[in-house]
């Protein structure tokens, strides 16, 4: 792995971040907020890392998935309480507050999508 700026991935990161911000601001409940947002967040994180790291896409994708799973399992143990952040809106937004198996599935599907797209892009080169 080496550090290298990639304009395509930074543009994708900014577009996905804007989409996630609109979802967070305008949609308070429903499938798009709770499931599609989780699907997109792992793609956003992957694009963010690929913006600066030139490396094996599979390892980067698996690292993002592992990080996402760790954050989700922190919700299972209610990590906000021992950190005294249970009343922080920003902490709840970033770390979440409730464990859901459906979130793990959304993260996995997001990373599977990334891997399929990367595979097709490599195949077309």
Structure characterization notes:
- This protein is mainly α and 125 residues long.
- The protein has one domain (2-124).
- The chain is built from five helices and two strands, in the order E-H-H-E-H-H-H.
- Strands 1-2 form a two-stranded antiparallel sheet.
- Helix 3 runs antiparallel to helix 5.
- The longest helix is centred in the C-terminal third of the chain and has 24 residues, at 101-124.
- It is globular, with a radius of gyration of 15 Å.
- The two termini are 20 Å apart.
- The mean pLDDT is 94.
**Radius of gyration over alpha carbons?**
15 Å
Low-pLDDT runs: none
User: Can you count the beta strands?
Assistant: 2
**Terminal Cα span:** 20 Å
Number of domains: 1
Major beta-sheet overview: 2 strands, antiparallel
**What is the average of the pLDDT values?**
94
Task: Give the % helix.
Answer: over 70%
Query: SSE string, helix = H, strand = E?
Result: EHHEHHH
Strand order of the largest sheet: 1-2
- Shape field: globular
Q: How much of the polypeptide forms β-strand, as a percent range? A: under 5%
Continuous helix count: 5
Helix vs. strand class: mainly alpha
InterPro entries: DUF2809
Protein name: DUF2809 domain-containing protein
Pfam families: DUF2809
Keywords: Membrane, Transmembrane, Transmembrane helix
Question: Could you give a quick summary of the protein structure above?
Answer:
The chain is mostly helical. 74% of the residues lie in helices and 3% in strands.
């Amino acid at each position: 792995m080496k550090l290298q700026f990639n304009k395509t991935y930074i543009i994708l990161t900014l577009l996905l971040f804007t989409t996630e911000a609109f979802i967070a601001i305008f949609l308070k409940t429903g499938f798009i907020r709770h499931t599609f947002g989780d699907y997109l967040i792992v793609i956003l994180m992957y694009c963010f890392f690929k913006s600066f790291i030139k490396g094996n896409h599979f390892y980067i994708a698996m690292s993002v998935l592992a990080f996402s799973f760790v954050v989700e399992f922190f919700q299972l143990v209610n990590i906000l309480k021992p950190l005294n952040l249970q009343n922080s809106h920003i902490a709840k937004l970033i770390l979440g507050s409730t464990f859901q198996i459906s979130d793990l599935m959304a993260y996995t599907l997001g990373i599977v999508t990334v891997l399929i797209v990367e595979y097709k892009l490599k195949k077309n080169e």
